[in-house]
């Protein structure tokens, strides 16, 4: 590692001290930050371009830009959807130019479906990327009125919820643990509240979300299928503001304000469900002792040290709690912390240094009597750092490079009797330690019509000893047991992950793009279920477990119509997976000290076509998407070593999301979702053991659930005139408006009175679910 | 493995919250190929030990599984062998003499010869199972502690310390018979400390208890493979929940066909049937 450090530091010093014209043709550089005039929020994805000339750039995720201009006087335009376009004159000198954009309207319900610059889908070199804003998410009808960014992600082409109501999702046939979910750069290991019905992301706090469905930038790694990059607001540095709402099951509030004039600002937000508060008031003892709730809190502070340096500190704390005291209690939650330092090292070199921490734990307990009172706790802790640099080499080239390191500590479980009189043994599974780090570099070359993007990530994964015995396997057989030396690296995986893309822009309305990306995944989820549960456990690659690998190819055609009013896209992808991990039949996952012995390995592939038509503005806006996708697996010892449909193989899916502003203060939204039923294994025969029948299962995933479809509706009434500071609105929503009974699970059983007669029964979670939410903002 | 019951408890409560909306579905599935099913057991009691031989049926068939008659069936250990005879009135059921008694620590082998596939050639099927050491239970008593209408039972005794113990607990009320899979729970000594001589367990009785009700309690000792078979079979018979269930899978059998590629289902088990304990409820715990 010291070697890499010295190389990187030397490289950065060279770049930051380079003459301003180095690497450029004759010309000069304008750079700075772009922010929102109303609240000081940095704006990412803002288009800055030369009027009547070639060339331009977009702000990065921190609002920074660096634009190379040829010698002479120029007029540049700064444009961003939802904001007034600004036109500025720039001279021949290298200039720092911080730009403040004014929103067209600050009304509570102002929505633009495409929240970036015009024709971004044409000019962006990346394939398979979607961006969502909090305002867009708010327009989509939500279950129980709780708007949720993950539920909107699940409506994008190529993305599927893994089960009814779940926030876990599959991207292009990948399993849900193949999605990297970042909250202000910190990994979120379980993005679910209430067993998955809600996500951990409070929409009031979210600034924007980017979903990469495979063509993941080289600066990110560690997952095969997707990256969901959630960025939170920074906190209003212009005025005190508050946002909140009172809903059917939860309430939330956010306050933000400037500190030290406009040099700093903070944001604090929280929400909590309150069904349990009513239960406590019950006269029934059992109901009094029942609890089911979640809460979460987001905190963020930022401080502008000077024009070149800014520091951000943000944190998330959330917990779910479920109890039927004293029979059983269960709690689980995430905590993340991010400390970020943005520094403009030179007019062309922008740096982001970040320290992140992620923590997830769950707790099970029972306190029936001292003799059998017991508990079980499991947790995962990550600490990491990242140095990320963006260097605007010249008019044509923009380079990104950096180094990332994460230390994983996994405590799989510790438990036993909790009282002195307990007859239950105490037990602890050995902790697992690993270090994951990577160097990356990428470059984007922009010519007149052609854009090339190429980069590489080289990742290392080290297993670090815990001083405890571990199994060594050959194939699926244990060959020996060895003590892994405490604190020492005893195994290393490493590999090259090239990422590249090409985009050819025929004109401002047409572009053809292609990309290739290779990704490696070094930690994965031990889950014995198709939908995931809070008790799932992450475990690392090891001498017995090779990292999972994915190679994905994408070709896409993008076409806009009517001055960007309509955006369309067609993408075709093929993904090949190797070292795919699955569990043998009836694997023992919970509390197993030798989890490696339960694993089976194989390969897989997925392919598909995704179509999207989006209307960006007007009274009626929204999108329609269709995806055809297949996902197959071949895993040792599963399905007699034959290929089978993966759990996430759902050939046809359609999403329609429509928002209609039919009066000044009224709007209505609807979404309809359709997907082929998910693959499932059904019984095909049965045999008699004693007096009971035991089923004979079909081949793995040989059947499918009934197709899934659902319509959600919502109606929003803005109660305040647009010119008032205090804004409030009432939202009525209906989830599953035509009461479709979508199976959550299907099981087979026999009649009690006549065991020779078997039948299938489904459990469905939701019929019509109406909700009312009152939102405010000032 | 240890603390599995704690996770199971939490999952069951979660299940109960999520299962309020149910509806029957009309689903038809293809018929699996017919297969041979052999299920036999030998215990440490002096009794007629049985082997049941049948054929499987399509899942939605309402027919009785066809019995397989005319098989040659034998159970043997290292020193003796016992030939089983088919009961005339119960086709497919083969019994030992009533004097046969299994011995703890002994390995028993089941041999079955029959022509299942009808090709005129008799196939040979075989399975082995070792009878475990049984726990020495001195007594079982109701604890004065009760939680939420569930009595707690204290078991006094000792379990073998030189083997991994697996137990199958049967609980019931007023001597109502329990079938094989109506056990209360499977438990092993990963969960309870074998050095203890008293163990306390909640004893859930569906429907609760009234004063004077008889509580039946029995602990069978199993080997690991039979424990797995009972667990797997019951799991396959139950509901599958997305949050907590793996895909359905074949129940693993320990019976193989030695001379043909014929898949066999079922199991042959040597186990120790526990003593039947009776307690009288002195509390009204009905609900």
Written account of the structure:
The complex is a heterodimer of chains A (778) and B (287). With 778 residues, chain A is mainly beta. Chain A has two domains: 2-104, Carboxypeptidase-like, regulatory domain (Immunoglobulin-like), CATH 2.60.40.1120; 129-777, TonB-dependent receptor, beta-barrel domain (Maltoporin, Chain A), CATH 2.40.170.20. Chain A has a 22-stranded antiparallel β-barrel. In chain A, strands 9-16-17-12-13 form a five-stranded mixed beta sheet. In chain A, strands 1, 4, 7 and 8 form a four-stranded mixed beta sheet that branches. The model of chain A is unreliable at 106-113 (pLDDT under 50). With 287 residues, chain B is mostly beta strands. Chain B has two domains: 36-131 and 252-270, Immunoglobulin-like (Sandwich); 134-223 and 274-286, Sandwich (Immunoglobulin-like). Helix content of chain B is 10%, strand content 41%. Chain B is built from two helices and 20 strands. Chain B has helices at 4-18, 224-237, and strands spanning 22-25, 36-42, 50-55, 57-58, 72-76, 81-87, 90-95, 107-114, 123-130, 136-147, 150-158, 166-173, 185-188, 198-202, 208-209, 214-222, 256-257, 264-270, 277-280, 285-286. Chain B has a nine-stranded mixed beta sheet with strand order 17-9-8-5-6-7-3-2-18. Chain B has a four-stranded antiparallel beta sheet with strand order 13-12-16-19. A three-stranded antiparallel beta sheet of chain B has the order 10-11-14, with no helix packed on it. In chain B, a hairpin with an 8-residue loop joins strand 8 and strand 9 (123-130). The longest helix of chain B is centred in the first third of the chain and has 15 residues, at 4-18. Chains A and B meet through strand 24, strand 25, strand 26, strand 44 and strand 45 of A and helix 1, strand 1, strand 3, strand 4 and strand 10 of B.
